[in-house]
Amino acid sequence: MTSTVPALGTRTAEGSALQAVLLDMDGTLVDTEGFWWDAEVEVFSRLGHRLDDSWRHVVVGGPMTRSAGFLIEATGAQITLSELTVLLNDGFEDRIGRALPLMPGAAELLAELAAHRIPTALVSASHRRIIDRVLVSLGAQNFALTVAGDEVERTKPFPDPYLLAASGLGADPARCAVVEDTATGVAAAEAAGCRVVAVPSVSPIAPAAGRTVVTSLEQVDLPFLRALMTEKR
């Protein structure tokens, strides 16, 4: 989905019903955050550079331009951002072609949302080519729309992807529940005015107003998400 990001506008406070659920992909629904790091390590090894493990926490959850740009600067590798982006996407696609494990609870949550006809969107910083491959396993029929990182001018941590998804579903962002696994994604969802459930994958995320932190997606179901709408911020 490619469109113009709507203005923040005035968010209504009337009612507390859950209008839509917006889901992150990597590390939230599919266990692939490690795949991205492995691809980055492999590509930079071929370029003659060894990545420091501490950098993993810097690049996780961010847009490709940010993570790839950081690694180029940190290593001094002689490669352009556009060239590196192609190599990283190729390496990631190769990995998900071999195995694509879903996070515990992901299949059950998607089935429950579909059974109750809850408008659901997939909102990812990954590029469209990656999302379309992953949708084969997640089931494209489980999502009313999908938003890719290369389809918005500003991706996470900016609110644009979540504002676009809410608008596309005809929902008030304040009545959307977002499930994310990284601080970058949480920041984007909160900036859009959504209620957030954080399921940390690589780095810890602290609870905060309007944000609930759980240890597993298995703790998240439709009653849980509906209850978020009644909590005070």
Describe it for me?
The protein is α/β, with parallel strands linked by helices. The chain has helices at residues 33-46, 56-59, 64-75, 81-98, 106-115, 128-138, 160-168, 183-191, 222-228; strands at 20-23, 120-123, 145-147, 176-180, 195-198, 211-213. Helix 6 links the parallel strand 2 (120-123) and strand 3. Helix 1 packs across helix 4. The two termini are 31 Å apart. The model is unreliable at 1-15 (pLDDT under 50).
Write the layout of secondary structure elements.
Blueprint: E1 20-23, H1 33-46, H2 56-59, H3 64-75, H4 81-98, H5 106-115, E2 120-123, H6 128-138, E3 145-147, H7 160-168, E4 176-180, H8 183-191, E5 195-198, E6 211-213, H9 222-228
Parallel strand pairs: 1-2, 1-4, 2-3, 4-5, 5-6
Helix pairs in contact: 1-4, 4-6
Structure characteristics:
alpha/beta, 233 residues, 9 helices
Element string (H = helix, E = strand): EHHHHHEHEHEHEEH
**DSSP, total strands:** 6
- Taking the alpha carbons of the first and last residues, their distance comes to 31 Å
Alpha-carbon Rg, integer: 17 Å
Beta-strand content estimate: 5-15%
Mean pLDDT: 89
Look at the helices and sheets and give the structural class: alpha/beta
* Spatial sequence of strands, sheet with the most strands: 3-2-1-4-5-6
Give a quick rundown of the structure.
The chain is of the alpha/beta class and 233 residues long. It has nine helices and six strands, in the order βαααααβαβαβαββα.
